[in-house]
Known about the structure:
Layout: H1 3-26, H2 34-47, H3 58-80, H4 97-100, H5 102-112, H6 118-132, H7 135-144, E1 146-147, H8 149-176, H9 181-207, E2 211-212, E3 222-223
Antiparallel strand pairs: 1-2, 2-3
Amino acid sequence: MNIFRFCGDMLHVTSIMLLLYKLHKNKNCAGISCRTQEIYAIVFVLRYADLLWSFISIYNTVMKSLFIISTVYLIYIMRHQPPVATTYDRSKDNFKHELYILPPCFVIAVLTAHEWAIPEVMWTASIWLEALAIYPQLVLLQHQREVENLTSNFVGAMGAYRAFYILNWVYRYMEDGHYNWVVWCGGVVQTLLYADFFYYYLKSKVSGNKMLLPEGGAGNAAIV
């Protein structure tokens, strides 16, 4: 493992901790997309199913288990545990991932998998799903317009985690020539989705003000 992979993992853990802190501190989940968390839960179950038949290291096992368990726990809190669950508005978190993300990603996974073995197709599907997982969250923020600091930090940490994973892929390619075009394509798609948000996120941090997204979306965000 290299430093970029480790930093990416730690940023991912940080994003989850920030979200758990927000839910427990504020006792509400306003501005958080449960649909995005549902996609991530599917991503982790598909990608880390190898926990059932292989062992790489204690670190690897702990991190994989942490991502699965914590994401399922987040979904449980938002959907079923009061008082947080009473603040979740499914009508606003309304991007139909079951129609526009899940089926296309599974079809693309079958077409782009290195081989048509079930574990390989599952892993490939997890890459394409993760590339689009943040989209329902961005749509919800567009509807809500004003972005709380904890929420923006959570989304920012998620974006930073992927940025370090891209650096990890570049490092591995330079060190041993290893690359996977599916991973690279998924990373490019995910980076493009985050690009506008990150610009205004960093701008808001420099100015010390909250983000306010106009009706046009994150691409036209303004700082107030």
